[in-house]
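Re: Re: token formats

Sure, here are both.
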Amino acid sequence: MWKRQYISKGGRLTLIRSTLSSMPVYFMSLFYLPRKVRLRLEKIQRDFLWGGGALEQRPHLVKWSLVCLERKKGGLGVRNLAWMNKALLGKWNSRFAIENGALWKQVISGKYGVEEGGWCTWVVSGRHGVGLWKAIRKERLDMYRSLAFRVGSGRRVRFWKDIWCGDEPLCESFPSLFAISMAKDAWVSEVWNSDGEGEAWTPIFSRVLNDWEFEMVERFMLKIQAFRVQRENEDNVVWTGSSSGVFSVKSLYSMLEPEGSALFPFGIWRAKVPPKVAFFAWEASWGKILTLEQLQRRGYSLANRCFLCLSEVETVDHLLLHCVKTRALWNLLFSLFGVAWVLSGSVKDTLLGWHGAFVGKTRKKAWQMAPLCIFWTVWKERNLLAFEKEGLSLQRLKYSFVCNL
């Protein structure tokens, strides 16, 4: 059994991503994960990450929904179990559409029936029970807008209601024409005329078109003229969530995942520093390290004074950027690289603007890891002052930074 107290947060994150998140994958790829089970599994992961448990209460510094975002969006890349469950179940809907001769598909089709076109079964509408396919079929709704069709014979693709011509169904692109269509459920092959006189699209409307509708009809015809029915070929389903057109669990998961932060310095994960240092920089970027200000916000009655300078309020940005003692490290760094630099107002903005193209290739790695080393050095020194009651030594602070760098 892992001993949490001996593993850094960076190490715990690695174990969660490699082990704890992977353990329920087989179950989630077949069954819908009950909400209580999912919440329990997420609690185990949260407690392991932040060091808490049944017998101790450690603060969870960042909300779990943010932790579960990918690193480019400001998260830690931990898989959200609900989204992962949906993506894994969605794989079966994709396989059902393309594996025409598979035995398992024949069994499912025989039990539930197949919709016209043969891309999926009918919706399982029974009130009771938690059948395996019942849960899988529900997840097709999340996939529908990302399923398009490559027309071959046109016998399995709806002319108006399926996505085969552009990014949306024709019934949404041209709703007024759809309203007067004589065959709203027509297949593509039924609207395509290939008699001896030539090939052409022949949609039929319920009334004579008005003069003001001619321009719209012209746009409509120009849009579908780029496509042809090839009766010797089969219709195929295309997954628009990936550039290859082939479904993948990863692409569906990315679609289910919310956007997150528009700008985040995810380069901290590429810097050549230990995982625990990168994790600390991630916490600092969100302003969530446990400074005295953060402790006050969490309800602790404490005097708020920076442990380093003993004069200012201890906020994240003050401690790591603007404290006079910390500025000594920044000035040392800039003198080592021979640059003039103005620090931003926050840790996040500082890291976002930390570009090292001007320092040269040989020193770029050191430049990228330098701010993270300063953050870690200052935090360790601050904790020595807070808990070990040691006196501040600027010489020791600089020496520690140079050694870490």
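Second one below.
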Amino acid sequence: MVRSLLKGEKEGLVLRDLDERFRGLASQPGFWSLSDVINILLAMSRKLDNILAKLDQIDAKLNELAKARQ
């Protein structure tokens, strides 16, 4: 199940969907192992890195536009 979660993450799964899957897995008693937790945290970390990179691009573009107006 974790492999399908990571596969979905590679296919451009949005963070909300990842969170929903995470919650679904959390409701299954006895499912978790340390490697499962690490894999999910790594997938979420990659998603957050992508979001931060996009925010940096937006910030740079806004700075360009602000300089152009001056």
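The mean pLDDT is 77. Residues 26 and 32 are 8 Å apart (CA to CA).
- S.
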